[in-house]
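Supplementary notes for students who missed Thursday's class. We covered one full example, reproduced here. Read the sequence, then the structure, then the short commentary at the end.
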Amino acid sequence: MAEYVATGVDISQFNGDVDIGALKGKVDFVIIRCGYGSDYASQDDVQYQANVRKCEAAAMPYGVYLYSYARNTDMARSEARHTLRLLQGRRPLYGVWYDVEDVALPAGETLIDNCVTYCREMEKAGLYCGIYSSLNWWRTRLNSPRLNPFDKWVAQWNDTLDYQGAGLWQYTDRGVINGRRFDMNRAFRDYPAIIKGMEGTDMTRDEVAKLAREEAQAVYDKNEARYPRISSLPDWARGPVEEVYRRLDLLGTEDSGKDTRIDASETYARALVVIEKVLRLLDELEEKEP
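Structure (token representation):
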């Protein structure tokens, strides 16, 4: 079994009023239930906001989890909205976890669809996301290669973890700290380092498109005067450029038989059209993604 790097607890309203400051030095992190089910305020965990404030006040690294009741992907998306509403833009250093264990959850590919949907929504928001369940569920109902891209938090109340590749292990529900009972967990990954390393990598589609346009404009401005026509290109570049223009049908306008295929306005306008087509294609592929 891999060596663990940190020990923590997970808590919910059922733990009551937890003195998180008193846990400092005894555990390295806390994972807090934010709520359960779809995006209704009545299904927020009543201790969640207080637990977050106490973690922040104590400089205790924390993650959050949401208990799922989703029967289809629409409900999974609502559960994702529920989580994002409660996070209020925070990026917890021990990630966001989808608690999949309720006996009423669907079977087969529907359950896998729900997990993928929730985790993808978290990733779109720039968050690190994984899935929690029991060892038995991981071996049976969640045993799908479609979940390979996501981290796994495995519950096995035992002296050893009989599962390969888990990031978190809930190893007992009978841990006692300061006279109080907790679920205890071990982390096999340095989540704060991983999640801090994600900062600056969560650009939105619009931000990427804006950056692409700015870069295209910069290249255009630099080369407009230098290479106004294909005939003005250096010999080594002329052939490849002609081939690209031919393949992409970017022949531009003709002016009294002169070569105007790198006419400035025509070239730049066509470059923007190509960028837009690529972005639309990415959207289509994303919609088809399982």
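Commentary. Residues 111 and 167 are 21 Å apart (CA to CA). Helices lie at 48-58, 73-87, 108-124, 135-139, 191-197, 205-223, 235-248, 264-288. If anything here is unclear, bring it to office hours.
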